[in-house]
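Hi P.,

Sorry for the delay on this. The queue was packed all week, but I finally got your sequence through. Input first:
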Amino acid sequence: MLAADSICQPCVCSDTYVSSAQSIAELKKQATAGDAIAQFNLGVAYEFGEGIPKDAIEAVHWYRKASNQGYASAQFNLGLMYAHGKGVPKDDVEAARWYRKAADQGVASAQFNLGWEYDFGKGVPKDAVEAVRWYRKAADQGHASAQCNLGWAYAQGNGVPKDAVEAVRWYRRAADQGDADAQFNLGLAYDQGEGVPRDYAEAYFWLGISASGKLDNSVQQKAIKARDLAVSHLTPADLSQAQARVSIWFAEHSASK
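Then the structure:
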C-alpha cells in the first residue's frame, strides 16, 4: 500500500514589487530618504536584477532597512535570504526569526515557512503542534501548500489527532488550487478509501493530474504507479470518462493561467 507521504516544501520565491512604476534612480532617492516601500522595492530590484545588476548583498541591505521599519514583505524576503545563504551566511535561526516577524503580521507565506521550520526543526526546536498552528493560519488565508501540509498533519496524526476525513478536506482545498502534492495525496485517499469512500475513478483523476504536476521525481513515480494500478479497477467506459475529466481539467486550468 502506498502511503500518502507527500508534503510541500517551504516557499522559496520572494515577495515582489508593491509598485514598479518608479525608476531605479527614484527608488534609490526615496529609499535613502527612509521610505520603507521604496527600500523593499529596491531590495527586490537588486535581488532579481530588475533595472540594475543583481547584487544579493545590496538586496539584503535594503530588505533589512525596510524590515527594521516593520515592513512585513521585506521581513519575509530577508528570512528567505538567510534560509538560502543569499547575500548573507546561511542561518536557519535568523531565517526563522524574520519569518516570525512577517508571520505575526499575517504574511501567509511566512506563516507557512515558519510552520515548516517547526515541523522539521530547522532554526527552531521541532514542535509538531506549533507547526500545525502556523500551517493553519496560512491555510485559512488560502495558502495551498499550507493546506496540503495541514492535511498531511491530520493524515499522520502529527501535532493533531489523526483524522482522515479532515485530512481529505484540506487536501481537497489545496488540490482544487492546483497543488500537485495535495492532488497526489487526495488521489491516494480515494484509492485506499481513507477519509472518503474508495473510488478508483476519482483516484485516477487526481493521480493523473498530480503526475503531470510539480512533484519530486520519487513522488511522481509513485503517482504514475498508483494511477496505472487504478486502471485495473475501471471499466473501459469509466476509464474513458476519467481520462476525459483529466483533459478537461488541464484545458480549463491552462486557460486560466
